[in-house]
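ping. complex inputs:
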Amino acid sequence: MFPGRFHYASPRALDEAVELLQKAEGEGKVLAGGQSLIPLLKLRFASPSILVDINNLPGLDYIKVESDGAFRIGALARHGEIERSDDIARLQPTAAAAVPVVADPIVRSRGTLVGSVCHADPQGDWAAVMIALDGSVTAYGPEGKRSIMVKDFVTGPFQNVLSYPEIAIEATIPAPKGDVAGGFLKLERRVGDFATAGAAIGLEFNAGRVSRAGIALTGVGGATVNAEAAAEALMNSSLGSDAVMRAADLAAEASSPKSDHRGSADYKRHIVHTFVRRILAGIATDQERAA
Amino acid sequence: MTQTADPRAGAPAPVDEIKIGGLGASRRRVEDNRFLRGKGNYFDDIVLPGMLHMEILRSPMAHARIKSIDASRAWAIPGVRLILTGEALATRNLGWMPTLSYDTQAVLATDKVRFQGQEVAAVIADDPYIAKDAVTAIQVEYEPLPPIVNPEQAVAPGAPIIRDDKLGQTDNVVFDWEVGDQAGTEAAFATADVVSRLQLHYPRSHPCPLEACGAIADYDRATGKLTAYLTSQAPHIVRAAVALIAELPEHQIRIISPDLGGGFGNKVPIYPGYVVAILASILTERPVKWVEDRTGNLISTGFGRDVYLDGQVAMRKDGKILAVKMNTLSDHGAFFADAQPSKFKIGLMHSAFASYDIPYAHMASRGVYTTKAPGGVAYRCSFRVTEAMFFQERMVQAAADDAGIDQAEFRRINFVKDDDFPHRTPYGFLTDSGQYNKCLELALKEIDYEGFLKEQAEARKQGRLLGIGISTMTEPLGAGNSREYDILGIKMFDSAELRVHMTGKAMLRTGAKTQGQGHETTWAQIVAHELGLPAEDIVVEEGDTDTAPFGMGTYASRSTPVAGAAIAMAARKVKAKARKIAAHLLEVSEEDVEWELGRFYVRSQPARGVSIQETALAAYSNMPDGLEPGLEAVSYYDPPNLTWPFAAYVCTVEIDPETGVWDVLRFVAVDDCGVRINPLIVEGQIQGGLTEAYAMASMQFITFDADGNCIGSNFMDYLLPTAWETPGWELHEVVTPSPHHPIGAKGVGECATVGGPAAFVNAVVNALSHLGVRNIDMPMLPDRVYEALTKRTDVSGAPPVKTD
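pong. complex structure:
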């Protein structure tokens, strides 16, 4: 690969990283897992003046579960580490369902969840998962830290609300207030392919009824789609077939896919409908079995 | 111990051919030692002193007039040594070059660009980064012209003439060509009880070797010699072409094709990049390296297929095929650059229906220009045999369905019988041998055909969609016989040179060129079989035109049929000389010398003998009077016919009716490629071929949008299957030796890629046949399958891609 000329820095402290970005006056880029950035450099779609490599920053490679059940995932936690996390497998079904189908094993060993959310690819997986879970991103900049809900963080194709030279240092999934359930399905033509269409669902139950719901869709819009109305349709339901169909209908309505070589817009909408239905039917079956 | 009258008393134990790595030994590949250790020697590993680097500027547009090219900003970048444009090349009469299909192709565009990715300019610089910076600094002003992305657009009234550079070209038709007995075919159709018709598109795909193309050209002004390291499957053809095109003296051209990271037909043509690198080296008097990037490879180099079929089968009620009609419409891109050696405009398309006993057939083929990359015969395909067999097996399935006859039974009715060889095919080929029914029956038994049909019927009642697909075909492999095949007039023979050293070790060189097929392993086994030398004592070298005998290279599964035969013949020449030496050593007349593997002995006195190694020593140290010293031979082999391997592939699938996603349940492959020299390598070839067949059937294609943009220009869009989704293959064999090959072998490299795709498509279409679906174009992406099963219609995949 022959990218354009760029400088490279590998700071050892977060403040130093922010400072390096600041000096680059908007032309700097943060390198974490590099699984999206490096291809962009190769194709010269991105030509930053400096790459600020944060891989040597200490203490960003964690996956922590708090005593209340909240997750904190550092900017250097790799997909593969999340895939192998017992806490994720045990406590966070939406993320656990998504992570094995994020890209391919090679990408998963380097790429990061936080980087993926920042990259804001409309066909990416993690932004959908995080929106479905009411997740947030923590940004660090000259003004200090701030937390931004992922649904407000991702604003368009490859666009987020980070205010340069802020660096996203953490993603968080809030503590659940009920019993957690969820799922993730995506259609891809091959392992590692971008999603033709995909759906992430995160639910909480209280006394057998849905007390929190999040549904987000990937591959079916200019940005990750937050299917709020579909999620709302599930509230207080026990995932009866009417509620499930209503949610699937509303999720399909919320998506705005484009026809391309992966399929027609109608087909993608149909896949969203099918996947939302399948995830919810699966959860309902699990609930019945548990009861 | 009792003494008996053992006639072999005192003779050494016979050589165990499998132990010495002879015929039939599943010898591990010797080349893997260096490949697996990362010690391969690919052209990009080669670094020459003072080497410059070249980068090519490619057209972003499919069809446009070049109004101006301004390279001044590029020239200003430090480290830029040379910038070449079409105009600069034209002053040396190199703006255009001839293609292997007797058309012309732009080296660097002069007047217009005719496809997205076409070569427009080249920069030669001190390092590849500078070269890349400089090509992006070249400013080209284009005046857009209408793109043409399919044959329908190409022949529409008022379509712009793509090849307005050619005098007398008044439309976008490349050729109209026909073969077969039209009157006989029409008469047979008139008497038919049933006529079955099928229309479909075999999409454009790309060979996509993991190593893209490239070159290092090194012109030495002091000696006048040009050495070029090239990614070529046919280095001698390149030498001949360079001599003819560039008018350099042939003895001063050395083409070296080092280790190749795959070829699949992609590395047969001569690409503009090679020509420009050679010219750049001559002009700069420095070595010039050009490494094609992945996108450059996918959007500009030799692709495969892109052919439309309108096929008809005429039958009697009982299923007997009376005649076949095939109309093909092929999209050749902007230049007719099919790298194929036959005299037939549409390659070997008319090898179709060779395995069926059909009295009459007619084919009409039209080729058209479009604003897409040139090529069409690459990708593990003997010059459109892949399309021929796909069309055949899709037509056979539709015909069986239309006649209301079981798929397997329909084939049994129409197969050429075992005692009917050599058999003249309906389009005029002569097949050599086969046991078609035996292969099919073995495949059906292994997949439990009857059992699956019951399971399928049961599943249908529950709304599950199961399907079974059969593909049976014989195909012409070998690209030879000098009567019908040549490249630039050079006949399609091949060659081998065997030198046996004094100590009985040997060096073998051939005119073929391995790209991963395992020649270094297999060729030694042929010598081991002929001479009894252990395979490990034989080193194999290919790819250097200064040392290898003249040969036509490796493609079209021709190496074993042609070069492999030459090796056997060269070894037999060596053996004939060794016999004379043996007679001398044994002090008997040559007529009294008998041969067993690895050893000559005196007739009826087996104990009195000399090994082949002893004759080798004597060839240099104790030769008989009147005999030249040395023990070596060269053989040039002109095959009397193509070899005709056969395959029966049966695939079962299940479709998810809600998504259109289909999964392969089982895939049984029975291959009859004649005598297997190295069964391990043969099975590897079949597994790789089936994987590529699965890729084309399920995910892989190059398509274009309405603006002529190539979709499939990188690995995000052009998909190679991984181990995850690739099904497991169940392999079986039948052996029918080729009657005309010295050791009975047939080609095999391409069988699975050629015969495989129809098995998958037939299976998916079979699962939907009760809904009236007759065809889904490849790749059978889930959305296409879903559309077919919900709308109960055929689904076309022809470009342009459907957008909102």
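The interface with chain B takes residues 2, 4-5, 43-44, 104, 187, 189-194, 196, 258-265, 267, 270-271, 274 of chain A (CB under 8 Å).
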